[in-house]
Design brief:
Length: 937
């Protein structure tokens, strides 16, 4: 067995949160050890941390500076023990267990030493507490009777030491007078989050922590709050709600799943008087093991926003007026039925929601297929990863990520392509950064600089739209240097060496110089990237919308898969291809069938056998389930524009901002005879609705989300919905009844999930009971199946069981620059905002960091056009124009621009095109020709 397989620090990343396969390998490889602690015999693994082993066996040796996620520091010395045949007191947190060890953890001498050390620490510590945080130090002080000042021998010195208080961060406060210099915050920031923002200043007793070069608010701190979560004394505390939350008096602690990106972090919601007042990362649970980003930790205020929709609204004479549920639902049912009768089923359509639960989405697709009787059903995945999923389905038989998020940490090469991961999937990025620390090679392919470039071994910066040429170039290098995996090609690729020969022939047309000319990437960088990737034992790819949101998106992903396959970097533990999903439940909404092409479980709508099975479960006539594939997201708007779609039901989506070519989308919505939007806030899209129905946020519902590594995790109700907002699935169910389709009554969300499991084979083994504590990764076909961390270990899910190569040639983009439109615009996301920012912008913690649209332009271009930082500029494309502020930046190449898409006042999709990728029907959000004009201020 390859002994280099385990390079993860066991202490920093404990066994219970590794992926199942890696975990098994660790176990097989580890020698067992038997030790004794205070006479108690304990079996464990050699090399485990002594302090942790004691704790796992209910022996609680006092400690302060140790945390299981961090490397041991040995700073506080509270964990001192005696070890037979070793001299003196030894800090247990610095000891690796070995067979036969005999440890004394508690005797009078050790306890006295601990009391002395605590007493000493107390002298420089400000004990005042507002009780808004858990205070590990205070608990120890009480345990040793030192809460009584009369029992202390050292005077209190902290007041005379002049410790500062740093209140400059928007989200946290650091009070040096409460800091015991345990290093946990520094290591939390460095080792867990990989950010290295914190350090010490001054020396000895006067030393304290600083952010950056002195002031937290001016440092690179991005507000993830890991340091808050791991601080044991309350020296670092969050700002929001401290006056409200006294930790002992929270009404409830609810474990749920983050409502933002597709990492699916497990969170602990603290609730007081029906308000969420704090969010912590849930320690020990996959995939995040307590880590969060700023959105997950501080982005919850929107739930209690006064802007929430609380009553149904009907548009009368151009104005929305409040009504009751009965009137609203009756109207909706009658209007949809009338359209159906007059124009046919296919004149209706629906957008499901990547923000809603699987249960909501499952009922939604069931409603569209039964009550509407059409497959005109889609959602935002068409706009982000449709091309990735299309290519992966055709080449590999499965469109989901092949690995577990935590596998990034054990990879020895990671290729991140078109994915600004630190901003879009911040917690996944922490695993990537840890891999780099472990020695992994990191390759970034991105036309725009991203924060992850700082950690990269090589950054390829291709011109926009040239990915296929670049990837074919890498394939040619790999083949010409004989870095292929011939055995894999023969046994796991359909057509074996013959299929490979076809790819080889195509790739021979991409010599270094030609690829360098097309892409602008230097030959030596191409060579380095190809060699790093192809020679790795465990190479992971993270793709992103940078390559998927193109009219050539599917071709780009085909090329990427080709490279992955010929090097055998898939179908084995720790290797594979992963498209991290943008929103919290993009994966789940597809899994439960919100697609014009597939039923729950990825079975084509055209599959009679499946429709028969589903019809029986739904108690619905088989013949009435449409076998005709429906229209996709952009096609639905195009059909509405052409007068073919007359009525639409949009749940939790905001197409006015997310769909390409905004003017066209707005015209399409205006032409719609009847539009229903169900959401939690008024949005740019609700303005076009005839009826607005108030749904509920993630914190007000039970259900499940599926994250980017196929993990089905629980979502739990923590607070009551505002006003008369109702559960999303219940609203849909009510409309179904009123339209004359009596959908079966459901007891609760778990009842819905049981039906999902009956319909979708890959979730057949999952129940709410099984995921009560922690999620399960599909495929999980039976009730005793442990879930699947890595896909394709034995076979691919194609009909032949083998992967399929799809050689594709580079074709120049149809969108061209010219004198009138000399720039190419790229669009994307930022850390502090989310999607169309309806949720994120209602959190002061997030808007304090970033709340303004901007345009990045290379400084040379800015100078040539006489444009200075912060001037207002107009951006004009062939589709429309918007304005924003300019930021000269060499993050983009000359001739290219970048703009975040979150902001309604500068709607980037007014500029983008609705030309579609022929395979996946995705639109080219990443490439729009435009010009930039200066506006007078
Ligand atoms: S909030 Fe996060 S980034 Fe900022 S100092 Fe703490 S750990 Fe580091
Ligand atoms: S990384 Fe994603 S899932 Fe995790 S806390 Fe941040 S937004 Fe939430
Ligand atoms: S916990 Fe071991 S030295 Fe601090």
């Amino acid at each position: 067995m390859d002994s280099s397989i385990i390079r993860v620090s066991r202490e920093a990343y404990p066994a219970e949160v590794r992926s199942p396969e890696i975990h098994n390998l660790v176990q097989i490889m580890s020698d067992m050890a038997t030790i004794k602690i205070d006479g108690k015999k304990i079996s464990t693994r050699s090399g485990e941390n002594l302090l942790a082993v004691a704790k796992q066996n209910n022996i609680f040796i006092p400690s302060l500076c140790y945390h299981r996620k961090l490397t041991p520091t040995g700073a506080c010395r509270l964990c001192v023990v005696k070890i037979k045949d070793q001299r003196g007191f030894i800090a247990a947190c610095t000891v690796s267990v070995s067979d036969g060890m005999e440890i004394t953890a508690f005797d009078a001498e050790l306890e006295e030493a601990r009391r002395y050390l605590l007493d000493y620490l107390l002298s420089e510590h400000n004990e005042a507490s507002d009780k808004s945080y858990d205070d590990e130090f205070k608990s120890l002080v009480a345990r040793y009777g030192l809460d009584d000042p009369a029992k202390r021998q050292f005077p209190s010195l902290w007041k005379s030491l002049g410790y500062p208080l740093d209140d400059s961060s928007p989200v946290l406060t650091y009070d040096a007078s409460k800091c015991v210099k345990c290093f946990r915050c520094i290591k939390a920031c460095d080792e867990v989050q990989g950010k290295k923002v914190l350090s010490f200043t001054k020396r000895g007793i006067t030393s304290y922590i600083i952010g950056g070069f002195g002031v937290w608010g001016e440092s690179e701190c991005d507000g993830c709050g890991e340091c808050i979560q791991l601080c044991p004394t309350g020296a670092i505390v969050e700002k929001p709600n401290r006056e409200v939350l006294k930790t002992a008096t929270a009404d409830s602690d609810v474990i749920s799943t983050c409502p933002y990106c597709g990492v699916g972090c497990q969170i602990e919601l603290k609730v007081k008087e029906n308000r969420i007042v704090r969010v912590n990362g849930a320690e020990g649970l996959k995939p995040n093991d307590g880590r969060l980003c700023i959105k997950g930790r501080f982005g919850y205020a929107y739930v209690g926003s006064p802007d929430r929709l609380t009553r149904p609204l009907i548009k009368r004479n151009g104005q929305f007026v409040e009504t009751d549920w009965d009137e609203a639902l009756d109207l909706v049912a009658a209007k949809f039925n009338a359209i159906k009768k007059k124009y046919g089923n296919d004149a209706l359509a629906g957008y499901a929601s990547a923000k809603c639960t699987n249960e909501d989405n499952y009922i939604f697709q069931k409603f569209i297929r039964t009550a509407f009787g059409t497959n005109n059903l889609d959602y935002c995945t068409r706009l982000c990863h449709a091309s990735t999923v299309t290519a992966m389905l055709r080449a590999l038989g499965d469109g989901a990520g092949s690995n577990s998020i935590e596998d990034y940490e054990t990879a020895d090469c990671i290729l991140v392509i078109g994915n600004n991961m630190i901003e879009t999937h911040p917690v996944t990025a922490t695993f990537v950064k840890r891999a780099v620390v472990n020695g992994a090679k990191l390759i970034i392919i991105d036309p725009k600089w991203t924060l992850l470039v700082k950690f990269a071994d090589v950054w390829l910066q291709p011109r926009l739209g040239t990915d296929v040429a670049l990837l074919n170039g890498l394939i040619r290098i790999i083949i010409s240097e004989n870095l292929i995996d011939e055995d894999f090609i023969i046994h796991r690729i359909q057509g074996g060496l013959q299929a490979f020969e076809n790819l080889k022939k195509l790739a021979s047309n991409y010599p270094l110089e030609k690829v360098a000319e097309i892409t602008g990437v230097a030959p030596e960088k191409l060579l380095a990237a190809a060699r790093f990737y192809a020679t790795a034992n465990r190479a992971l790819i993270a793709t992103g919308m940078g390559i998927s949101q193109q009219v050539t998106g599917t071709d780009s992903v085909f090329s990427l898969i080709n490279m992955c396959l010929i090097t055998g970097n898939i179908g084995k533990i720790g290797s594979g291809l992963n498209p991290p999903r943008g929103q919290n439940n993009v994966q789940g909404a597809s899994d439960v069938g919100c697609s014009p092409l597939i039923y729950p479980g990825y079975i084509p709508v055209t599959n009679d056998e499946n429709r028969q099975k589903v019809a029986a479960i739904w108690n619905f006539p088989f013949e009435a389930l449409s076998a005709k594939t429906g229209l996709t997201t952009v096609e639905i708007m195009q059909a509405a524009h052409a007068g073919k779609i007359k009525g639409m039901y949009i749940m939790g989506e905001n197409p006015v901002l997310t769909d390409p070519n905004q003017n066209h989308t707005q015209e399409a919505l205006e032409r719609m005879a009847f539009l229903v939007v169900q959401d939690i806030f008024p949005t740019e899209t609700t303005a076009y609705a005839d009826v607005i129905l108030p749904g509920v946020s993630f914190a007000e519902k039970n259900g499940t989300f599926v994250n980017s590594d196929r993990r089905v995790s629980r979502v739990r109700k923590a607070v009551d919905p505002p006003g008369c907002a109702r559960q999303d699935w219940e609203v849909i169910w009510e409309i179904a009844q009123r339209m004359g389709y009596p959908m079966k009554p459901y007891r609760d969300e778990s009842d819905i999930f049981d039906e999902i499991a009956a319909v979708a084979p890959m979730m057949a083994g999952i129940t709410y009971d099984r995921i009560e504590r922690e999620g399960l990764q599909w495929p999980c076909p039976t009730k005793d199946h442990p879930g699947t961390g890595t896909l394709f270990l034995d076979k691919f899910n194609t009909p032949s069981g083998r992967a399929v190569l799809h050689p594709v040639d580079y074709v120049a983009q149809t969108e061209k620059t010219n004198a009138a439109y000399p720039f190419l615009l790229n669009t994307g996301r930022i850390l502090y905002q989310y999607h169309t920012s309806t949720m994120s912008r209602r959190n002061k913690a997030l808007t304090d960091f970033a709340n303004q649209s901007y345009l990045l332009m290379h400084p040379e271009d800015a100078a040539r056009l006489g444009l200075k930082k912060d001037v207002r500029v107009k951006i004009v494309s062939r589709q429309g124009e918007i304005d924003t502020r300019l930021r000269p930046s060499d993050e983009v190449l000359p001739g290219e621009l970048f703009m975040p898409f979150h902001y309604g006042e500068s709607p980037v999709n007014k500029l983008t095109r609705d030309e579609l990728d022929p395979h996946s029907r995705i639109a080219p959000f990443k490439l729009t020709a435009c010009r930039v004009e200066k506006l007078t201020p």
